[in-house]
């Protein structure tokens, strides 16, 4: 995934450079949604172009489509990881379903997107800025509080506060079932 809004280099130029050096799949994600921007990104070598804010389910579907076109129909990472299981929590990205101990948990669209982003990162830290950019597509004066409320609500609804581990001053990462209850 390549965001065109980079601080040090033009994203389109970087896309061209990557394409010149490699045949790696490139999906552009950008707030630049005008048709001319999308055409420019695709002509620069991107395999697909997704405008922010976007739905995590659509991103997953586009990743699968790009992989299918490239001859790898298995799925994300070649492991078919569109369904994640962490302890007794099951997150199905394609079906937008979450179950805890076999019971379905109803989440709002934004709650599901936050959970899916953190779970798909597989333990890597998702910065607050990344979560806000990828899910809300923008930031505003109350953005951090909005994210805090969504995470708190997720922890309550899932009944597994350890699942979304806070990395103080940075963001959130996937916790482990063996984490102590006070860790989240």
TrEMBL record:
Record's keyword terms, sorted: DNA-binding, Phosphoprotein, Transcription, Transcription regulation
Modified positions (4-aspartylphosphate) in chain numbering: 3
InterPro entries with a match to the protein in the record: CheY-like_superfamily, OmpR/PhoB-type_DNA-bd, Sig_transdc_resp-reg_C-effctor, Sig_transdc_resp-reg_receiver, WalR-like, WH-like_DNA-bd_sf
Family matches, as CDD domains: trans_reg_C
Biological processes per GO annotation: regulation of DNA-templated transcription
Any one of the GO CC terms: cytosol
DNA-binding feature ranges: 81-176
Protein name according to UniProt: Sensory transduction protein RegX3
Domain of life: Bacteria
OmpR/PhoB-type domain boundaries: 81-176
Molecular function GO labels: phosphorelay response regulator activity; transcription cis-regulatory region binding
Pfam families from the UniProt entry: Response_reg (PF00072), Trans_reg_C (PF00486)
Record-linked PANTHER family: REGULATOR OF RPOS, SENSORY TRANSDUCTION PROTEIN REGX3
Residue intervals of the Response regulatory domain: 1-67
SUPFAM superfamilies: C-terminal effector domain of the bipartite response regulators (SSF46894), CheY-like (SSF52172)
């Amino acid at each position: 995934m390549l965001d065109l809004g980079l601080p040090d280099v033009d994203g389109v130029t970087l896309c061209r450079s990557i394409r010149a050096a490699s045949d790696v799949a490139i999906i552009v994600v950008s707030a630049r949604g005008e048709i001319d921007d999308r055409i420019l990104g695709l002509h620069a070598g991107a395999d697909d172009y997704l405008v922010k804010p976007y739905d995590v389910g659509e991103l997953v579907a586009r990743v699968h489509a790009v992989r299918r076109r490239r001859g790898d129909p298995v799925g994300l990472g070649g492991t078919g990881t569109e369904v994640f299981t962490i302890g007794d929590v099951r997150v199905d990205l394609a079906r937008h379903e979450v179950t805890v101990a076999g019971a379905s948990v109803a989440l709002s669209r934004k709650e599901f997107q936050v959970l899916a982003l953190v779970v798909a990162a597989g333990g890597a830290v998702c910065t607050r800025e990344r979560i806000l950019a990828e899910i809300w597509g923008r930031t505003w004066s109350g953005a951090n509080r909005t994210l805090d409320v969504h995470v708190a609500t997720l922890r309550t609804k899932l009944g597994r506060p350890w699942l979304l581990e806070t990395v103080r001053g940075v963001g959130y990462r996937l916790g482990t079932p063996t984490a102590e209850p006070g860790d989240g």
